Amino acid sequence: MAEAILKQMEKLEAAEDFFKLFEVPYDLRVLRVYRLHILQRFHDYIAAASLDISSKTDEEIKQSYAELLARAYEDFVHSNAQNEKVFKVFKEQGKHLPQKAIQFVSIDTLVGKEKLKRKTQ
């Protein structure tokens, strides 16, 4: 029953294509920054919803997916990648070191003050 919408989704390439297909309004500035995060969150929401698409029409699936995509998009309108922790790199961030162990390291400590002075002169 729901093969048409799923086939359409398989052909999509850009994040904008998903928003157009599901008729979800978006701000291009937000989408440019968080496109991969939004699409991953959308995928996560689809997996968590475990919709029985075999018994739904294309229009019902389109409506359900549109709601999930809008929800994923809204997550990043009011937040950011570090707070939302969609990807493993953000989930793992800070797990291995206590917050107090993270310190500022200046560039001159890394390359040496003498090399830095020569390059800036």
UniProtKB/TrEMBL annotation:
GO terms for biological process: nitrogen fixation. Pfam families: NifW (PF03206). Keywords: Nitrogen fixation. It comes from the Bacteria. The keyword Iron does not apply. May protect the nitrogenase Fe-Mo protein from oxidative damage. Belongs to the NifW family. Homotrimer; associates with NifD. This is Nitrogenase-stabilizing/protective protein NifW. It comes from Methylacidiphilum kamchatkense Kam1.
